[in-house]
Amino acid sequence: MFTPPVTFAARRTKRRIIPSIMEVFLEILKYTIPSLIVFATAYFLLKLYLDDRLHYEKAKQRGEALKTTLPLRLQAYERLTLLCDRAGIPNTLLRIRMPGMSTADLRGSLMLSISQEFDHNTSQQLYVSETLWQIITLAKNETLAFISQTASQLPPDSDCEELVSSLLQGIDDMPVTPLQRAIVAIRTEAGQLF
Fold this sequence. Notes:
By secondary structure, the protein is mostly helical. The chain is 79% helix and 0% strand.
């Protein structure tokens, strides 16, 4: 049987009818690459938009929470400042000293009064930083230790006026009392709110 010779045009037509694997792959890439680029662009734009929206909502909630908590925090700073002032030895002496008290009585009354003032304001620690609360606690403890140390140098049954003068002299010798340092820390932290 005789087969006619295959001409160049015939070969070319046959090739067009059955595309090669490479041509199919390139054809698929021609459609998928632009669609992937469009998808990636849409994804990143949508992600940026949603992140920005989330940030805006968080800022809005933070602002609303600040409207509620700011007055409470300022009140806490005010009460803690008042605590440090009232727990100061000169102010406490004015409130509790009575004629005829002994050194031991005055020491016990001072320590009880300062501890009660502090205990009355423990709930304020919710509104201040942990560092500030530790400073206030340390100031209270240092004040109580100062009272104990000063009273231990005097006979327990001596007149309370000796303890009063020793305490006031010791306070005058200090450059800054622990409770005054606590008041400075309260003012510093309260000033950071604005």
